[in-house]
Amino acid sequence: MKKVLFTAVVLFAFTISNAQMKFGVKAGLLTSSYDGYRLHRDDNNLDGYYNTPYFGRLSSTESSVGVYAGGLLEFDLVDQFKLQPELTLSYVSGTWGYIAANVPVLVKYSFFDKFYAQAGPALNFAIDGDDDQFSPSFDVGASYDIMENFYVEVRGDIGLGGYLGTSVNAGVGYRL
Q1: Whether the predicted model's global pTM rises above the 0.85 cut
Q2: Domain carrying residue 82
């Protein structure tokens, strides 16, 4: 097992070292559904009272609009495939909004010139959350290169646990 893992790490390192790499920046708007109570439980002291019929709500699912900005690396792999790890910060407004750091690692595939489908896992960390700060997710989306280094993208982020439900991101990016 150790030999297989070592071989995989060496092959991955070799692929990335031989790959052409570009840096980039990105920003955009997002809509997010999330569990505000799970994030800010300690701020509101509502543990024994929140999910009772007297409080008037049986769910703490919130939905709000926000913004995101961050950076990325783009590695050319083989043929039409690219690897794109990112680090973005998101701010979602609302009564129980949040600020989060998002780290997706996407595989991009070019179906035809300038158009990419992208998918991959992501880890989201609510910086200002009290509880359940980590939320794994899976990202699926598409991007289109308007010019050589300037692109637009749309992406869905499907929460797999923690505070995040789903979010939809739409934005622009520039590769340096």
Answers
A1: no
A2: 20-175
